[in-house]
Amino acid sequence: MERERIQREKLRDLAVFERLNGNPAKSSQALAIKKFCRTISIKDVQASDMRPLNVLEDTLNYLLGFVDSKEHPFEVVHDFIFDRTRSIRQDLTMQNIVNKKAIYMYEGMVKFHVISHHKLWCSMGDPNIASMHHLNMEQLTKTLSSLFNLYEANRNSNDVHENEAEFHSLYVLLNLGSHSKPMGEPLSLWFSHVSTPILKSKEMCFARRIVRSFRLGNYINFFRTVAADASYLQYCIMEPYINEVRSLALSYINFGGYKLHPYPLFNLSKHLMIEETDLESLCHSCGLEIYTDEFGNKLLHTKQTSFIHPKGGFKKYSFLGLQDYDR
Hints:
Blueprint: H1 2-10, H2 53-64, H3 74-94, H4 100-121, H5 127-153, H6 164-173, H7 187-191, H8 196-199, H9 202-216, H10 219-229, H11 232-256, E1 263-264, H12 265-271, H13 276-285, E2 290-292, E3 298-300
Antiparallel strand pairs: 1-3, 2-3
Helix pairs in contact: 2-3, 2-4, 3-4, 3-5, 4-5, 4-11, 5-6, 6-9, 6-11, 9-10, 10-11
């Protein structure tokens, strides 16, 4: 570690969080954190290069403390944590650390990637951030896969780890998109590897209900289920699909409604759990015109031929009735 820090100081290869008094060529033992090395092998590693478990735990906790930092843009924070947590996983793997402490560490790293998935999605208009979002998804699925293996390695009889059901549910929700196969196999096949206690857990029942509602286009059940039961991490994965379901609902109402009976926007906003002003904006994004009657009520006339699914993505809209989350 000392050797790496000195070399990186010479190369001015220090993240902003590692610089001593802001100096890009100076760090310290307390600030510099081992970088991920793609080409490293067991033969090249010296004992002094491997961080023991307690150091890895402290390092991870220190890194995760930056997630909510407002001092720098999130993409800067993400880039730093993204690399250094890969290095932590590398050290755990090379030392074959597979105990319950490793489980908690992997859960923390999955949580980081899930939160990043949400935060980066909110800035997807920037091509650089879109690429970052893609790479984050890759590491999210890899870290989840390793976490599932750790659960199995620590399995005693048919017991379930305290957080196991929720983390399995996150994988299910990553399959919301019609072509999504994050780990390369259909969701139906993946379910066959999951134990019965996990399949019957409330977290997994929630995730399966969400996927079913999404694929059937049952938007009312979808939104009610999200509002009633979603955890913070589950919502982070689902939010990119929220407006897709709302857009689908608008298409159903527009094409299937009775032309002489316009749909009150106020009522529709309750079903889609969105502020009425946000719903009006969404309707415009979908090419639909909104009318105001003599009483000031805003109405959506059906059978409009101008409906489109927005190609450039959606704005971030409100979600009514959602619980306040405690991370």
